[in-house]
Amino acid sequence: MSQQATQSILLLEDEQAIADTILYAFQTDGFQITHVTTCEKALNQVKEGRFDFAIFDVGLPDGTGFELCKTVRTFSEIPVLFL
Asked: Other CB atoms closer than 10 Å to residue 70's CB: what's the count?
């Protein structure tokens, strides 16, 4: 089994169609991926510290991925990709 199979990703995306495509792509390659739809839920997940990587949407109902990243950077260096 590849190293990728053990990688855990957090996906913050409020558009279900976009999330479904991303989820499918990463799951097909053996990644574990958790999907949330709000900044608040994503922040709680990151605080648990169990992810290797995060993907944040930029425009969300309760904030932006950029604002969330600023908060996350106060306690974590998790790599973040913005959509």
From this structure: 10
